[in-house]
Amino acid sequence: MSRFLLPLLLLPAALCKDVLFGESGGIPTTSDLATAESNKALLEDLLASLSPGDSLTVENSTFIIQGGVHATGLADVTLRIEGTLKFFDDIDSWPLMDEPDPYIANRDVQEALHFTDFQSVTLTGGGTIDGSGLAWWGFPGIGYLIRKENRPRLMVMDDCKDITIEHILFKDSAYWTTLFNNVDGLVIRHSEVSARRPWDNHDGQHNLYDLSALNTDGFDVTGRNVHIHDCKIWNQDDCIAVKDNYKGGVSENMLFERIEASGMGLVIGSIGDTHVRNITFRDSVMKNTYKGVYMKFRDGTEGVIEDVTYENIRIENPSQWPIWIGPAQQAENETCAIMWPAHGKCEPAPNQFRNILLKNITVANPPRRGLGMREPMLGLVFGSEEKPVDGVVFEDVVFEGLRGGEEYYACKNVVEGTGVARGNTFPVPSCFTDETDSE
Ligand SMILES: *[C@@H]1O[C@H](CO)[C@@H](O)[C@H](O)[C@H]1NC(C)=O
Ligand SMILES: *[C@@H]1O[C@H](CO)[C@@H](O)[C@H](O)[C@H]1NC(C)=O
Ligand SMILES: *[C@@H]1O[C@H](CO)[C@@H](O)[C@H](O)[C@H]1NC(C)=O
Ligand SMILES: *[C@@H]1O[C@H](CO)[C@@H](O)[C@H](O)[C@H]1NC(C)=O
Question: Which residues form the signal peptide (predicted)?
């Protein structure tokens, strides 16, 4: 090789820069409004300055930062968080949106981090993004009544492509931890979501005190080609939720595996008028969770959830329904009473579940209710009258420690003959065909 060619080949690499946040003027430790605003302005400037091949490192210190950080159009860059980005906890100074949130009533706070049109961006580094959620959750039980859902998400990405997130702890989000809107290509691995109040006794249980940090969803995704694996989630709402694609497109081709989750479960929904297909959750465990397998329609008439597999999942000590395929159990729509099925009635909106497989699911110690807490709460399969569930197979779906004779709460509106129980499934939902080994 010519000795003139070698320096030329090295040139592109030499042009790439690694920007250091602290060295560029980021102020660690101090927590006041001026510092938080200054750190935010610097972070936005540095992000905007990155070219393909560059990286930005937040060094191993804690930087207090104001919310409403925006960045757009980054391509081929690495963001390395080695320390902590901690959002400033003064609610009154938090920036508001120009127009209120079109999807959630009375919500006008900006997100903590809001990124759009990123392509081939990696977020890594072993550090923490901390939402200072406690300030927003407020006094247990009362904070929610005051702020409702007008709280910032920790990180939102709109219309991004080929994103990798690894070795990041997402801590104490005020509201949903993350939302990937209309993503195409997302890998999240070796990362953690933790949303817990202080003085939590860390015994791995959720109680009412913990639940008052409501709406702290973990990874919420819409779009396609998503792989989330080897992550831990402990929060007070949906752990993972495949949601409506806000561009109206399909949410499809997603695999979630080796997740340790404890919260409202591994969720599809809540879904309105959109289409979700080809989603797999597998090889995961949910200990001391509220719910487990949870698929829910909110409202609408044209929604479809199809080609879904939950496989090799263990659910231990759930405190609510461990298996739920039906209408959303929340007050978003009047089609189902919030207390249903304990009280009130439910008429699911006319949406379609199709081709659902639950395979090798074990539920240990399901919750109980009723007189003397004798009646176990196993779950339900509840389609709509207009469009009954078309194809639902339970293979080796087993509840441990039942005395026999127990029933699912409801098995209703399933196309005749398309609900099938196989293998060691026990008990068999009443509207399924029993093809288990015991027959
Ligand atoms: C940051 O520093 C702490 C203590 O000094 C250390 O335990 C931790 O591993 C460091 N984190 C990274 C990502 O280097
Ligand atoms: C379903 O999604 C997986 C990714 O999770 C993908 O590999 C597979 O090709 C998809 N199948 C179909 C039929 O699109
Ligand atoms: C509830 O759902 C119905 C039908 O799907 C819809 O027309 C109505 O607007 C929804 N109501 C609310 C409060 O979202
Ligand atoms: C069933 O799922 C459990 C995890 O809950 C796993 O350990 C076991 O290997 C699975 N069994 C089969 C036959 O795949």
Answer: 1-16
